[in-house]
Amino acid sequence: MASVIPAAGTLPWRRRDGRLEVALVHRPKYDDWSWAKGKLDPGEHACVAAARETLEETGLVVRLGVPLPSAEYPVLDPTGGPATKQVHYWSARVTGGSGVLEHEIDEVDWVDVRTAHSRLDYARDREQLLALIRAERADELRSWPLVLVRHAKATPRGRWSGDDRRRPLDAVGRAQASSLSDVLDAYGVTRMVSSSSDRCVATLEPYAVQHGLRLRTRDALSEEGFAESGEGAVAQVRRLLERGDPSALCSHGPVLPTLLGMLHARVGRSPERGEVVAEQLRVAAEESMRKGEALVCHLVGRGEDARVVDVERIDT
């Protein structure tokens, strides 16, 4: 049986003079035009690899947007045996970087989508391009992420005699928090809010410290605060929806289903994705998110107009 080689990449996009443009890369080794992509490092999440590979190949820092269709095709593994390469793709917006070519690429060219369609050397790469065009027509490319996080694994309640709000992460939880930091970086999170309980704060803290971000804590997102009234937790999500910034919110198992239900009511009307997205949110609420899990909600619009157009579940 052929082995699977996981990889990830992006379609960086921009609008210039009213036209949608994408960034193609040229690989001199194969003399082909394709998307920036590369293999996952051991233990690396696909979303993290997609942003990392884009930076390494193009010199551009990107923020991942809505996911695009994946691609699978036959290749040879390092031993020369048959393998299947599976590439996960995302739309992406450039947020920084020098643009200096750094890895296996000798040219990056921004072209309009019609030119890209004709220049791409592989038919499979056109699937992502067509999906990007459909997302643009549906006004879903200018999305922003709201990442709901269930706190990482903590010291069990039975082994903790102090105030439950002070219960710390264990070794597994600390590793999850470090992994989560890379995930939040891929989605360009700039605003963070957490339950005031230590295990939630510690889940987001590595990313906040790394990027010099303020980590806002709210008693309303704690189990204790939520038990008194759920309105405060819902209000925190409403505030994030009003701002429309790339955001992360960390809370607890008993709190998150209510927040997911609130987002379920805001699923976009897309006939292609609406039912799928609604089902993903329903399942996440009913089955309970796993400790350390991040649920990335891609939204368009702000405030009352905010709509969820796609969802990703990522285990750290």
Automatic annotation (TrEMBL):
Presence of the UniProt keyword Transport in the record: no
Origin organism of this chain? Terrabacter aerolatus
Q: What region holds the Nudix hydrolase domain? A: 3-133
Its recorded name reads ADP-ribose pyrophosphatase
Q: Does the keyword Metal-binding apply?
A: no
Please give the Gene Ontology molecular function terms for this protein.
bis(5'-nucleosyl)-tetraphosphatase (asymmetrical) activity
Phylogenetic lineage: Bacteria, Bacillati, Actinomycetota, Actinomycetes, Micrococcales
| Database matches in PROSITE patterns | NUDIX, NUDIX_BOX
Identify the Pfam families for this entry.
His_Phos_1, NUDIX
Sorted alphabetically, the keyword list is: Hydrolase
GO BP term (any one): ATP biosynthetic process
